Amino acid sequence: MKKIKLLLCDDHGLMRKGLASIMGSQNWIEVVGTVDSGEAAINFVAGTETDIVLMDIVMNGMSGLEATRWIKEQSPAVKVILVSGEVTPSSITSGIKVGADGYVLKHSSDDKLFEAIRTVSKGEIFFGLEVVSLVAEEASKNALKGNDGKSNADTNSQFLRLLISGCTMEQIESKLSIPKKSGRELQRNIMTQLGLKISADVIQYAISHSIVKI
């Protein structure tokens, strides 16, 4: 099996060494480099074959978000997983806008990091549980906007808000005043129309298109 070529970017030496040790213990991962700045990450990716970058968000000099934007513009095939000490609305939305493929917390378990790497290597989006929970909370707050005449949100947008907020299909059908047992068909049509595959894709789309604002 072809190994995933991984670049580690963090301005803390101990963090880089720790991640390199953890990732190097896996026979399906090849750590191709470790760098201490966003500028170094951009230069490394431009000159060396890299599949995925584990990118710290907060660093001295260029931020991980800005470095991600540059990498995705210059090497769109390279996947970037943002690594953060905390989940904040601004970092999530900014990460999605610059094209990040994943978002994990620094206190995540080794298995969670491996899951994120495997997921994005397949072309999918990965969000940690904390990110999903925050988005779901905000979606829930705004799920009913549009049913009271104060919003022009269309049915598809309303459907996505309700879906992310955790409503059952029966609840969605009731809130949108659509025929019973038609929710699943509507979901399939929306997912096909928008080219979405999994829940993480739905979240990314909803945030980037301001269907859910956090």
List the helices and strands and how they pair.
Elements: E1 4-9, H1 13-24, E2 29-35, H2 38-47, E3 52-56, H3 64-74, E4 79-84, H4 89-97, E5 102-105, H5 110-121, E6 126-127, H6 129-142, H7 155-164, H8 169-176, H9 183-194, H10 199-208
Parallel strand pairs: 1-2, 1-3, 3-4, 4-5, 5-6
Helix pairs in contact: 2-3, 7-10
Structure description:
With 214 residues, this protein is α/β, with parallel strands linked by helices. The chain has 10 helices and 6 strands. The protein has helices spanning 13-24, 38-47, 64-74, 89-97, 110-121, 129-142, 155-164, 169-176, 183-194, 199-208; strands at residues 4-9, 29-35, 52-56, 79-84, 102-105, 126-127. A 6-stranded parallel beta sheet has the order 2-1-3-4-5-6, with helices on both faces. The longest helix has 14 residues, at 129-142. The N and C termini lie far apart (40 Å).
Within the largest sheet, what's the order of strands? 2-1-3-4-5-6
Strand content: 5-15%
Number of helices: 10
Order of helices and strands: EHEHEHEHEHEHHHHH
Specify the biggest β-sheet. Answer: 6 strands, parallel
Q: Give the overall form.
A: elongated
Evaluate the radius of gyration: 19 Å
Brief summary of the model shown:
50% of the residues lie in helices and 14% in strands. The protein has 214 residues and is an alpha/beta fold.
